[in-house]
Recover the amino acids of this structure.
């Protein structure tokens, strides 16, 4: 955990004004810059000290054998791990004869600030060397949203008291030493020296390294160029290169009042297929483009890109400044993770760290894509297109498992299954319905017909085929899906998981509907009337376990009959439970790691009555320990829906502060992109009550907890730009762009036009008595700010 | 599979008269000699060619890390593997200047014969070298039952046509090269060069090697001595030694009519605690004992030991000579596996190979101990004493898993859990009840009160404690055991497995009963009246799932509702299914690897009505694929009980021929000791209808399939020796030793005395229509011999 507060609360930036070595790895994640293609962790410019050096290129990975003490049929043999690629961030500084290293000497002043509107990381530091030389270093770093292959740094150093001799070494470094980690399965298996040198050069101010990976056979080219400003005639430049390092050296003697300034432009290119010369040229070309744009030009482009972003999707929260900051921080990082991923996956930690081996999971479709769909639909489409591109691998996996259609991987970088632990991997088939659901949502929100009949239809058809072959009708005709694992990873290999069954039901119907909408395209996929009828039959006969005695749904068949976990006897230090109790024991008892039935009540809200939702929420809250970052936001949404606004606020706060307070104790490996996106969902779908319905309509049901005075959010829907603003008493709907649109305010249809906003009073909110959580696992209560 | 017939059918021996290199590894297992302490595979004397060189000492193992791609709490970190220890079998021969190697030259005659009454392996071979020199080699090998640390060989060679110069090299060799195997999880992970040389010597005819293992830190001393008889003056002797080899060399020039004969005596000692000198002395002492007894003396002791054995337990079968041979072969190998194990486990493959890493499983208690209990009760007690000795490890494992009492390991050599695959390992808690059941059976059969109140009570109490903490009462009071794996490894992590629940029920009651019998000893274990009451309550409230609609028991809750495996679409080449289908799919469907509910109907027959047994058997037969060697015998027992005598005979045949025909395709790694013991059970409990009841009584219900004309078997029961013989019409009970005994013949009580046998007619047998098996999985039909 990060002691609160580590960062200054501010509406449009995240700022640290003290350097705490203990949370250096966490701050490297928080201050990471990315555009979805390149990711640079917020390592200090001089490279050391560091928590985890990190430079990533989306999709660039190495393979490794997955070990099994006892192998089994269909166990994936090859794992995938994101690798730390060539580091272009490093600018080392020698002050007289001493390295600028903040572990030694005295820090007089230290500020780092992530500017959410400018899209840069600024740093300012005053340091006195052990020998007494005082210097000020200022740097600004960016990963360009507009120029996808480019990152850049402006670095400036000046003496504060005496003349100093400075040496700057601006480097490209490959195969940096990475800290070894062991024990915690959530931490990525470190790969040592994953890059094999292919070419290295240094000429004038230009540096270049080309490397390739051994097993995955991917090639990466990194090029850098520089502009140097320093006092004549003492400023001198040289460069040199070796296998794993290419280096520009600048020396200068500065008097007080003089500055040495370096602009560093870095370009990356990687490919599985392109030749070394082609890739070298690609990186050089990107570099020339960046040099031509220049530093100020890059800054201007970055701000313009973000101005548009914030205009589309900013969320304003009055009454809780932490959440105001956190939601914008989250929006910014989700944008960074997805903006330019372009037919690559969005990893669970984005490109902010190597956690979860850089894999993508169902989080991308279920937690991250909703936000992107409503704010950056093109980015959402790119992720779904990536999934569609991996259909051959998913179909092969299904075939291997004896199933029809496509079985998308539980965790992957390249589309192949990389999950070795099958009860929570192979058996977690819901990922397929989650992807289908993202397709349906994307089409509903954008009306993108071209996507619908091609990419969308393919995914829906192949996943529907999977479900039809995975489930079966019993003697009485009821359709069952047995032996699968739902979202809650403290249950596994269970029959008729309600979340899975309802999502599969939606998947089957959506595929049949899409095939009807696009009969010619469906026929090309071999879909027949018999097949869609079988999908509809299975959907209509889907089993949804319900315990009539308790009046609640069973997370899966038999769940509510199981023994309740002994929460009273569970030491608070023993969370997360998975690190202190065996899976077999977690699996067989009533204890919920993360929203499962509650998530079903959000994503398939139509399948539950309001009374069932309230009863289910009351039943599952005391069982849910939230040992996952994927839970709080969803509990917030349903809490708001069923009658617990304070609890909704509390869970919203937990989701929002997940990484800023490091609540899961692993922000060091990267941020939880899904939780950051979930914060937006908690505000918009939870307090804003937004739901899609009937495939093409949108409904709002705004409601504010006591502590908040106003929320405003923006959306894109079917080509319109919408703004929704609400207080404790009323809501105002503004259509700022696009053709008229009908929306629901609660049950009332409103016709919105760009002519003028529409305002309506809020109905009275019916509060229910709050449920309890397991001992010690209640979310932190949020209060009015003083 | 071994092409039938590979071995000559003979009542008291197993004989091959042709050397088939393709089945060399299988024949090495079949011809393995062991006394439960030392195991020598039937490798050819000259060492090569070989399938798998194998010399084992019960319990001597090495440790190795268990790898996990994703680790989890409570996963065992250290694996155990039996190692191939110093080979004392090798006697190499040079004929003139050519090595005696059966891959070259011409084999004129080859016979190997395992003599089940003499307890030796005889070999006779006439071979012509590539250069045309003809020799006859005769050897006899034994592992002594009477002198536990000793094995010996008599080796004789003579020229057949011309004078030859012979060189014999009699060796002790450590760290032999072992074939590497991969892919099949059932094959032991090979460990390369596991032995570290500590001492080596050769003086006169005496050889010695002392080695130790690296991680398990065990020391093994091997010593050999020789008696040489050859023609004077050409016979010369020398010896030498190095780290991993100690060698006696004999040279001689022989004319036809002359022989060179070598007696080789080998002694082993191993220990985790004894010093090098102590262990060296131990091996030397054993060797001196053997030399003193001499070759003929050892032969005489061996035969005397076996005469007594056969007198106690021989089974005669008229009408199926293959089964007659196989059952004696099985009895002999079970004796070999267990006779002198002496507070060590009986591994699944005995000491006949390295399969299953040399681990012991529940098979030992459930399949092997019944035979030993009725025939060699001391050996049965030794195994149970070994389990009791591992109670500290089992209690620690239970603690680690958050449970009370003791959790015995699923697979182990040293008592620590070595199963990495938890759904079939950790979750297979039934092993604890299986051990308890063996305790109850042992006490019932022997009346061993000293064992009952000490070793037995400890095991019963700690396992009962486990069950009480593993299960729970639901709101209605019913007791459930959720999320466990029963014997059927094609289902896992299920609720209320009938086998587990019934065995646990028996365990709980037996512990309460034993605590009542021995209140003082129970009090020392902390047992209170409250605790035994809780055990009895749980037992009384035990849930036994029953599908009322189908009128059958559910293997576990919900099992009969699951989809039935598509047997029609399953290629016959795709058995065993586990090598061709993923576990997740096997687990969620109705497909049974091995008797589970059917085993419950045997071991807890009292819990089912005859009608239920018949209906259950008819239901589960078409689902049971027998991808395990642990199934056929048990299906034979229940088939005989419910009304299918021909099927009982067929399954008896399959169990009997398991290794002789290599039906599981892995006899190369060692014999299936449990299946061999099961053959006896199929005869005695199946066709003989023997059951224990009321804790101290015994009942018979003999019935013969058409093809058989007579069965006779012998037993020990409460100090008596009993003989039961039956034909198609009558049964004769003979008490050959001991006080009068009352037994049941069907429902009729018979009072047996040593005065005279009692004969009774057999009641008419009620045949039921035969159930079917999955397509292609019916057992081979057995017919009348021609």
């Amino acid at each position: 955990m990060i002691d609160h507060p580590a960062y200054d609360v501010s509406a449009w930036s995240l700022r640290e004004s003290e350097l705490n070595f203990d949370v250096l790895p966490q701050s490297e994640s928080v201050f990471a810059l990315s555009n979805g293609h390149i990711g640079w962790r917020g390592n200090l410019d001089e490279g050391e000290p560091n928590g985890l050096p990190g430079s990533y290129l989306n999709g660039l990975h190495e393979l490794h054998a997955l070990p099994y003490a006892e192998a089994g049929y269909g166990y994936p043999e090859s794992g995938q791990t994101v690798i730390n690629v060539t580091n272009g961030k490093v600018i080392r500084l020698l002050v007289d004869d001493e390295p600028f290293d903040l572990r030694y000497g005295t820090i007089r002043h230290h500020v780092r600030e992530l500017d959410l509107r400018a899209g840069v990381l600024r740093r300012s530091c005053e340091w006195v060397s052990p020998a007494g030389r005082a210097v000020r270093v200022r740097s600004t770093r960016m990963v360009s949203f507009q120029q996808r292959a480019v990152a850049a740094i402006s670095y400036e150093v000046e003496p504060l008291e005496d003349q100093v001799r400075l040496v700057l070494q601006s480097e490209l470094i490959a195969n940096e030493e990475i800290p070894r980690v062991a024990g915690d399965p959530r931490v990525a298996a470190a790969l040592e020296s994953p890059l094999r040198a292919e070419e290295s050069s240094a000429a004038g101010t230009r540096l270049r390294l080309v490397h390739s990976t051994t097993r995955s056979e991917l090639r990466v080219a990194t090029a850098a160029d520089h502009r140097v400003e320093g006092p004549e005639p003492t400023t001198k430049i040289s460069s040199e290169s070796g296998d794993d390092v290419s280096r520009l050296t600048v020396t200068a003697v500065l008097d007080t009042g003089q500055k040495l300034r370096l602009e560093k432009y870095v370009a990356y290119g990687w490919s599985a297929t392109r030749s070394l010369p082609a890739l070298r040229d690609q990186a050089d070309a990107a570099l020339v483009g960046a040099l031509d744009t220049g530093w100020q030009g890059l800054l201007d482009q970055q701000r313009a890109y973000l101005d548009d972003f914030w205009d589309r999707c900013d969320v304003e929260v009055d009454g809780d400044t932490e959440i105001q900051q956190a939601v914008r921080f989250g929006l910014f990082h989700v944008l960074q993770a997805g903006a330019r991923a372009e037919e690559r996956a969005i990893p669970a930690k984005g490109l902010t760290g190597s956690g979860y081996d850089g894999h993508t999971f169902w989080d991308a479709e279920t937690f991250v894509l909703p936000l992107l769909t409503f704010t950056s639909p093109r980015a959402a489409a790119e992720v779904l297109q990536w999934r569609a591109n991996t259909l051959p691998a998913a179909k092969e996996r299904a075939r291997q498992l004896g199933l029809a259609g496509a079985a998308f991987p539980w965790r992957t970088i390249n589309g192949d299954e990389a999950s070795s632990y099958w009860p929570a991997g192979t058996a977690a088939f819901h990922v397929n319905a989650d992807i289908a659901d993202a397709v349906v949502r994307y089409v509903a929100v954008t009306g993108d017909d071209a996507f619908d009949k091609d990419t969308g239809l393919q995914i829906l058809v192949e996943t529907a085929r999977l479900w039809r072959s995975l489930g079966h009708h019993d003697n009485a005709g009821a359709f069952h899906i047995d032996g699968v694992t739902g979202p809650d990873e403290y249950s596994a290999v269970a029959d008729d998981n309600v979340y899975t069954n309802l999502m599969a039901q939606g998947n089957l119907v959506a595929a049949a509907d899409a095939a009807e909408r696009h009969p010619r395209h469906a026929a090309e996929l071999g879909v027949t009337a018999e097949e869609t009828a079988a999908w509809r039959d299975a959907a209509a006969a889907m089993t949804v376990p319900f315990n009539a005695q308790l009046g609640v749904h069973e997370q899966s068949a038999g769940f509510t009959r199981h023994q309740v976990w002994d929460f009273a006897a569970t030491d608070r230090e023993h969370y997360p439970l998975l690190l202190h109790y065996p899976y077999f024991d977690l699996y067989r008892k009533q204890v919920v790691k993360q929203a499962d039935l509650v998530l079903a009540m959000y994503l398939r809200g139509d399948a539950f009555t309001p009374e069932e939702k309230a009863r289910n929420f009351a039943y599952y809250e005391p069982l849910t320990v939230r040992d996952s970052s994927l839970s709080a936001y969803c509990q917030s949404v349903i809490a708001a829906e069923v009658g617990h606004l304070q609890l909704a606020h509390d869970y919203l706060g937990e989701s929002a502060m997940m990484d800023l307070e490091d609540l899961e104790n692993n922000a060091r490996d990267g941020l939880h992109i899904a939780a950051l996106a979930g914060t937006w969902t908690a505000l918009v779908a939870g307090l804003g009550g937004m739901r899609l319905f009937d495939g093409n309509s949108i409904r709002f049901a705004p409601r504010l907890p006591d502590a908040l005075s106003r929320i405003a959010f923006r959306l894109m829907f079917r080509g319109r730009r919408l703004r929704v603003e609400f207080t404790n008493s009323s809501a105002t709907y503004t259509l700022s762009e696009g053709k008229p649109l009908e929306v629901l305010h609660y049950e009332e249809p409103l016709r919105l036009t760009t002519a003028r906003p529409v305002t309506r009073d809020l109905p009275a909110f019916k509060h229910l008595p709050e449920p309890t959580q397991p001992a010690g696992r209640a979310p932190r209560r949020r209060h009015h700010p003083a």
